[in-house]
Amino acid sequence: MQGANGATQTVEAYNIGDGSFNLTVSSTASWLAASVGAQRTCTSRAGTCTPLSFALNTSGLPAGMATGIVTVSDPNTVDAPQTITVTVQMGGGVPASVDVYVAAGSSRDVTFSTNSPLSASTKTNDGGNWLSLTLDGVGSFRFTYPYRLRVAPPAGMGEGTYSGSVTTSGSSFPADNKSIALTMRVTSQPIAVASANAVNVQLAQGAPANTTAVALNNAGSGTLTVSGVTATGGAWLTATPYSGGALLKLDAGTLSPGTYTGSVAVASNAVNGTITVPVTFVVTPKGAPVIRYQGVVDNGTFAAGEAATGGDVMVVLGEQLSFGDLTVGQAPPLATTVGGAKVLVNGTEAPMYYSSYGQLAFQLPYGLSPGSVEVQVSRDGQLSNKVSVDIAPRAPRMLLIGSTGYGAIVNQDGSLPMPVGAISGVNTHPAHAGDTLTIYAIGLGETSPLPAAGTPAPAAEPLARLTAVPSVVFGGGIGAITATPLFAGLTPTYAGLYQVNVTIPDGVPKGTLGLTLVFPDSVSNAASIVIE
Predict the structure, then answer these.
(1) CB–CB of 273/318 below 8 Å?
(2) Domain-terminating residue out of 234, 266, 284
(3) pTM, two decimal places
């Protein structure tokens, strides 16, 4: 409730290892006070827990949403620090009014969340059926209720301004029971929508500048053209236009630690005018490298918490990992220091592929037993926190091309088995039955012979062939077809990269379908290809 403090919240921390905790907490927000209590019997599980209390001193906050982050630290604990994000909605989450541009035959959504369920009725002044409010998502345990307000003018609806309303009721929070005034502006012109509602960047003093983009997407008709960009806030923020939006550069330079705010405004020919995006830049003191919680992931899926295997290509995510620009290491045999940074696996230096401020890539050693290993970063003589990684006998991951869902798979003529023109400037065309594909992957397990981590795979016989060969499955379900590879092993002259060569069998369905690598003990992620 606006003008009042929120109820104190409690989170329980528990120890799944040996020894004892010595936890400390810190908060990024003045209204969020965190403290560590005495150990007690857990209320959420069996055993002993340490309660972490969050006092919400929110009475002075304005209407709207506020977010603070609590960092839970212990220098002698693996998988610390961890962060807890606390978000409060002052004055309720239901907007008082909505004003939106939309093209006929399309839809636009406005989302908001509440802490209790709503009942709602909609009304349009013209009697049209173009306005709705629905609850997003399902689940047995719900802490917030995400709602989607949608306007969807039918094709052929005339340009102009239309009005309506949504009346909400039934919430246990009175401020969420209201009438939302709705204005819908139907247009045939371009409608600009920013790729992000806000830009938030954190860098340490002396770090390389961060470059990011705010893209303008067209939710309307016609062609959207960017005409200029303007940045405000100070010399730490500069912006330059490009055809799709604005490129932002944030540079800590000589700034003192603190929080700096600014904005970038992108002008275009859109009917909704200039789009302004707020920018928050947090500058921290230079210190030891920090690995993000569950911030050691495989280079195939980048999914937190997944198991890895010996010889896997891994990525460390964090801050202050290196203070140089992106530095690519030497070709195999790989060096163990790149850009002034080292990665330690159980205390031993690992071969590295590249380094940057927030990301390092390295190879795990072969021969790791199932269980877990500890990963740590060394930079300028300073050691990071330790993060554990679960180790499995095998962790197959096919490599993907960006966020397309298509695999790093090559046709026998060197093209990619994707729709023609799918990637600008790249030779792409569908594959055919009888073609031989080369599928690139990581984490496929041990080979014979088995080179040491970081060294190049042999380029002549005996090649490094897998000791357990996967099946290649085309498609899924009843229509799936399985093929046996012609070759499956390490890619010659590379370190940690595998390839599976397979001929597409007759009878494979045409169109876009997924490929998986199936081992007796594991199955890879899926990668898409196109067959005609």
Answers:
(1) no
(2) 284
(3) 0.88
